[in-house]
Design brief:
Helix content is about 65%, strand content about 5%. The protein has a two-stranded antiparallel sheet with strand order 1-2. The chain is globular and about 85 Å long. The termini are far apart.
């Protein structure tokens, strides 16, 4: 009998660059289809002055016409320049490259972190990544490259470090140990929406403080389990390949080796001592720059704002706008401090040359970031996200049930809307005027409504290419990809982080349910129900 040959379809692995091009084309075509079908929606827009709801009609805008094509051509440069993802990443990398070039990371990891258990190290990376959302999206550009270095120097796959940092920030976004930028952005909208029902309602800055502290710890523990048991095993053990050269140098005696080792150890200890001193001075400067009312203090505060929170995290806050630069400056300072102490810096030319080697691979990100900026700008221009967000708000407003089923509906809608509108403020501006009054009528507090936004936003943020920092994940996975002939595609990247997404999403749902049923405080004098 003749054996039947099985036909195997050739699998296509689109490069991420090609994928972004396809997404741009698909978005343009969808805008034409939806515009032709007159797809539109009406939602309640909140007047922050009068606290009145204003009916607003939004329609999908067609980009496959004269004005649309004109936008694509004329705004391409503006879209790229205004896309801050690349610039903030480069600022962060300048500091990391200096610290790397002086040998600080190698010494610190070898002498300190190598003694830390892998699971503890993963927990630390996830925990810091989660609480980094205290200052907007700075965690993506700082923690992703830093985690890659830490994992690589620890002889673990740098891909694991990249995924650990990204998932920590994305799927734990908005849960920190302190009141941060999310409160500064969302509370005014939440409070205004609550005053549609109660004109005197006030949402405190610390209204979610207890629950976000607890959640940051819970998600870090669960995230560590996911990374160690679901992600890392798929990546395999990291092996750094080095070019082998024949050694013709003959070592004369062991005493010279031991003497050299002792000298290196003395220099490294002196370098780390310099780092410690520089860190103390930098922290002192940092704290003083955030204190108001003292001589020459408050350098990082926006003195035009009335409240301290707004001065630190407001729209024009020097602290918030300059945080990535400050972190980069810190690494530059400790890198040079270590290099001087350990005598690893010979001159400025060699330092810059060595630092440039680390930055060389980042050039591959430029095309990716350019296309990502165009895709996000084109999608935003179509109004598709606004229309779908409005549909979500209308679904919630028409819901005929209360209590836990209503809470789960709101959570589901926010999570789904987040796929096409991953910015919390953009979603909440449309959803809050409907969600907050609807839940208040069901005896559920505005503070809990705001926590539902955090939960739903974090459940799906990491799996949408419309997240501005998703391109950093894709780019860095390919920078450290051991198989350059087969780039890491969107599909493979999503496959790696999908276990994290599913388990963490389930954890978010459980946290929401248990907190509501037990009635535990969300913050000081703040509870799930009114």
């Amino acid at each position: 009998m003749r054996e039947k040959k099985k036909l195997k379809l050739k699998k296509f692995h689109f490069h991420p660059v090609t994928t972004f091009i396809c997404l741009i084309i698909l978005t343009i075509l969808l805008s034409w289809v939806f515009s032709t079908l007159q797809v539109q929606a009406t939602y309640n827009k909140l007047n922050l002055t009068t606290y009145e709801l204003e009916k607003t009609l939004v329609s999908v805008e067609n980009l496959l016409n004269y004005d649309g094509i004109k936008f694509l051509i004329s705004e391409a440069a503006t879209n790229f320049i205004s896309f801050t993802t690349l610039s903030t990443l480069l600022i962060a990398l300048i500091g990391l490259s200096i610290a790397q070039a002086t040998g600080f990371f190698d010494t610190f990891i070898r002498r300190v972190l190598v003694k830390v258990d892998n699971r503890k190290l993963t927990f630390i990376v996830i925990f810091i990544s989660i609480i980094s959302s205290l200052i907007n999206e700075s965690g993506y550009v700082i923690m992703i490259p830093l985690a890659a270095i830490i994992f690589k120097e620890n002889n673990r796959s740098p891909l694991g470090g990249i995924i650990t940092a990204f998932t920590g920030v994305a799927f734990g976004y908005g849960v920190t140990l302190f009141v941060g930028s999310m409160e500064a952005n969302l509370i005014p909208i939440t409070e205004a929406a609550a005053r549609v029902i109660d004109e005197t309602y006030h949402v405190a800055l610390t209204s979610n403080l207890i629950i976000i502290i607890a959640t940051s710890i819970i998600l870090s523990i669960i995230g560590t389990f996911i990374i160690e048991y679901f992600v890392v095993p798929k990546l395999g053990r990291y092996k750094e390949t080095e070019e082998k050269t024949e050694e013709i140098e003959i070592i004369e005696n062991e005493e010279e080796i031991e003497q050299k080792r002792l000298q290196d150890e003395i220099r490294e200890k002196k370098g780390l001592k310099n780092v410690f001193i520089a860190t103390i001075l930098f922290i002192a400067f940092f704290i003083y720059a955030l204190l108001p009312g003292l001589p020459f203090s408050g350098l990082l505060l926006d003195s035009k704002e009335a409240t301290y929170l707004a001065q630190v995290f407001g729209e024009n806050s020097y602290f918030q706008d300059g945080f990535t630069f400050l972190v980069s400056l810190y690494f530059i300072v400790i890198g040079i401090a270590y290099g001087k102490g350990a005598k690893t810096i010979k001159n400025d030319k060699e330092l810059i040359t060595d630092a440039s080697k680390y930055l060389a691979n980042v050039s591959s990100l430029i095309i990716l970031v350019f296309l990502a900026s165009q895709f996000i700008a084109v999608f935003r221009k179509t109004n598709i996200a606004t229309v779908i967000s409005a549909w979500g708000a209308n679904i919630i407003s028409q819901a005929g049930f209360t209590g836990l089923p209503l809470i789960l509906l709101v959570l589901l809608v926010i999570a789904l809307v987040n796929l096409i509108s991953p910015t919390p403020l953009a979603k909440w501006t449309i959803l809050a005027p409907t969600v907050v009054p609807k839940l208040m009528q069901a005896n559920i507090s505005p503070e809990f409504s705001q926590f539902l936004l955090r939960a739903g936003d974090s459940m799906t943020k990491g799996i949408t290419p419309l997240l501005a920092y998703f391109v950093i994940l894709i780019g860095y996975l390919n920078i450290y990809n051991p198989n350059k002939k087969r780039p890491i595609t969107f599909g493979r990247a999503l496959k790696l982080i999908l276990p994290y997404c599913l388990i963490i999403s389930f954890a978010w749902i459980v946290i929401v349910i248990l907190w509501y049923l037990t009635g535990l405080p969300l913050g000081p004098s703040s509870f799930p129900t009114l």
